[in-house]
Write a structure and sequence with these properties.
Helix content: 55-70%
Structural class: alpha+beta
CATH topology of the largest domain: Nucleotide Exchange Factor Grpe, Chain A, domain 2
Order of helices and strands: HHHHEEEEEEH
Number of strands: 6
Strand order of the largest sheet: 1-4-5
Mean pLDDT: 80
Shape: elongated
Low-confidence stretches: 195-210
Distance between the termini: 129 Å
Number of helices: 5
Number of domains: 3
Radius of gyration: 41 Å
Amino acid sequence: MSDQAKDERVADESAPLDAEAAAPGQDEASDYEALVRLLKENEELKDRALRAAAEMENLRRRTAREIQDARTYAVANFARDMLAVSDNLRRALDAVPAEARTADAGLASLFEGVEMTERAMLSALERHGVKKLEPEGERFDPNFHQAMFEVPNPEIASNTVVQVVQPGYSIGGRVLRPAMVGVSKGGPKHAAPEGAAEPGPVNQQAEKDA
């Protein structure tokens, strides 16, 4: 056998060995790519899980807040209607002169009964979160008070409630009906934070209705 034939035979026999030697390197590269892909998928799944958990927590908080608001403000419309009844009871009491209460025993008993009814109604409303607002002497708050007129008085700090024309009511931190008030002007300013709201213009129509 010639030397050339021998060389060709040796080359043919070594070829499969070279292919087998290259195979482990290809497998390692494939495994690395699979690992990278799995790590990426794991990160995506982890991110989705975290987002889903955050959304569920936000939903839980929002639902709890809505349930609490529903419990707190469920009686708001009913309470607002009852305020008219309370106002009428107060008007009836104010219409009875003090002299008549002492001169007529029957009228005095009637007066006392109406007064007890008014107190019972206000107590019932308060048990359901409705609070009466009588802000005389307090700083004017446009969120809970409605300015009906201004009273010049240089001795009282400006924007102080000096008279309550009609008491207001709040429920759960929200205004149910603003208190109609008269505010002072011409006095020193309140020592309040900058940007505090000032009373708006006098509501002429509301003043007529009062």
